[in-house]
């Protein structure tokens, strides 16, 4: 009996000791959890994401608190930047860390943060609006464009005159249009009176560009949906075309453009605008280069009129480094005389960049209409710098109207400020 009592006492003592140990471990675990939660909050991590047993309400409360604390921190950094025009490295690091944590917030938490910022009495009204616009554009417009636009409208009185508010609207609309272009357009039409300037060039361009990337046919229909005037219609047609960056996209867009042109064949203004827009396919090849451009052209089957528009846009202010290849291509793929102005544009720009290189190519170029057009462009460009070389080149042209037109151009445009030299030049070359 005594042994049994003794054993019972020992068991109870052990159990009590074990209980104390368990309770101590629980207390330690809670302390660790508290410390980890604090660390997580500092790095923008919500503890609600890691504890499935916590209620949704508790998670929401934590995230709201996190957003408000970040708002306080961001406001203090904004205040510090007002007094310190050149922030030190430590200040920049703190800002980057704070901005990274703000960027990690979900859309609902971001709305809380920017609302806190907009209501803060610690910054003047202009500064508050600028900071809100910055966060809306850099974060919320990308994460939830509809929420960004809703916030702008809710606080339009405070934000209407803020610098760069139009970019918040245009960026948000462009991102929204990637998923639902018709809804983005409907929003633009509904709110055009509230932010009229912001609904113009940039916003429209973003919506049309995003739509055209997915569905160029739909993008063309939006021109009528928005009731754009002639100038704006042309601008958005250009946007639709340059949104195509692969051969597959270009082919789809070209087909859509031709359909649009056919649908408006009885409207001379719209038809002409659509014809001209074909030229903007050339923009992509200013970067992609001659090989990519000539490859697409070989399969695109452009009509002579479309090809003329393409070459005209390509050669106008061409800033690439493949002048020779394009000059030769135009000479081979256009009827004699049809591509002269494009060739003149190309060699003129090339001569201004590097007249020696252009002259070297010209001397080695095969005889023919393309070379004759290049001679005219080269001569007209170097005339004021080297008249003797200019005249030697002009005299290599066939004695026809092109040589006479080149001489006449020099007489009118190059010698207009020197009547005596102009008279002598006209007499020498039998010009009137």
Describe what is shown at a glance.
With 432 residues, this protein is mainly alpha-helical. It has helices spanning 2-42, 56-83, 89-103, 107-119, 125-143, 145-154, 156-159, 165-177, 181-191, 201-214, 216-225, 230-242, 247-263, 268-277, 283-288, 290-300, 304-315, 323-333, 340-353, 355-364, 369-382, 387-394, 401-414, 419-429.
**Annotation, overall tally of beta strands:** 0
Overall pLDDT metric: 85
Shape: elongated
Describe the sheet with the most strands. Answer: none
C-alpha Rg, in Å? 35 Å
Structural class: mainly alpha
Helix count, DSSP H or I runs of 4 or more residues = 24
Percent of residues in helices = over 70%
- The stretches of 5 or more residues where confidence is low (pLDDT under 50) are 1-33, 42-53
Distance between the termini: 142 Å
Strand content: under 5%
**SSE pattern, N- to C-terminal:** HHHHHHHHHHHHHHHHHHHHHHHH
Write the layout of secondary structure elements.
Layout: H1 2-42, H2 56-83, H3 89-103, H4 107-119, H5 125-143, H6 145-154, H7 156-159, H8 165-177, H9 181-191, H10 201-214, H11 216-225, H12 230-242, H13 247-263, H14 268-277, H15 283-288, H16 290-300, H17 304-315, H18 323-333, H19 340-353, H20 355-364, H21 369-382, H22 387-394, H23 401-414, H24 419-429
């Amino acid at each position: 009996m005594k042994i049994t009592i003794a054993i019972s006492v020992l068991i109870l003592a052990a159990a009590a000791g074990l209980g104390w140990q368990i309770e101590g471990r629980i207390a330690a675990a809670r302390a660790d959890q508290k410390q980890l939660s604090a660390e997580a909050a500092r790095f923008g991590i919500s503890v609600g994401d890691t504890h499935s047993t916590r209620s949704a309400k508790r998670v929401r409360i934590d995230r709201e608190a996190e957003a408000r604390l970040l708002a306080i921190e961001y406001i203090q950094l904004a205040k510090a930047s007002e007094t310190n025009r050149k922030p030190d490295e430590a200040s920049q690091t703190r800002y980057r860390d704070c901005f990274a944590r703000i960027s990690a917030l979900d859309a609902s938490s971001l709305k809380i943060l920017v609302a806190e910022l907009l209501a803060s009495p610690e910054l003047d009204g202009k500064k508050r609006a600028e900071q809100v616009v910055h966060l809306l554009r850099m974060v919320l417009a990308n994460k939830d464009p509809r929420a960004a636009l809703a916030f702008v409208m809710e606080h339009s009185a405070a934000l209407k005159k803020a610098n760069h508010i139009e970019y918040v609207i245009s960026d948000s609309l462009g991102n929204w249009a990637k998923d639902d272009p018709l809804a983005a357009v409907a929003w633009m039409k509904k709110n055009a009176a509230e932010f009229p300037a912001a609904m113009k060039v940039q916003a429209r361009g973003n919506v049309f560009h995003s739509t055209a990337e997915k569905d160029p046919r739909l993008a063309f229909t939006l021109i009528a949906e928005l009731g754009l005037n002639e100038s704006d219609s042309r601008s958005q047609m250009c946007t639709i075309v340059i949104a195509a960056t692969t051969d597959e996209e270009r082919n789809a867009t070209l087909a859509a453009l031709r359909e649009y042109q056919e649908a408006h064949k009885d409207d001379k203004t719209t038809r002409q605008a659509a014809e001209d827009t074909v030229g903007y396919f050339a923009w992509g090849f200013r970067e992609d280069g001659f090989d990519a451009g000539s490859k697409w052209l070989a399969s695109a089957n452009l009509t002579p009129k479309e090809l003329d528009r393409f070459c005209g846009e390509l050669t106008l202010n061409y800033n690439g480094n493949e002048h020779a290849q394009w000059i030769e291509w135009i000479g081979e793929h256009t009827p004699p005389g049809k591509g002269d102005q494009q060739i003149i544009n190309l060699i003129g720009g090339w001569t201004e960049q590097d007249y020696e290189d252009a002259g070297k190519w010209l001397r080695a170029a095969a005889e023919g209409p393309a070379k004759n057009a290049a001679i005219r462009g080269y001569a007209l460009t170097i005339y004021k710098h080297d008249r003797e070389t200019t005249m030697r080149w002009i005299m290599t042209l066939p004695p026809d109207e092109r040589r006479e037109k080149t001489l006449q151009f020099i007489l009118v445009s190059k010698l207009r400020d020197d009547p005596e030299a102009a008279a002598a030049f006209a007499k020498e070359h039998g010009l009137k």
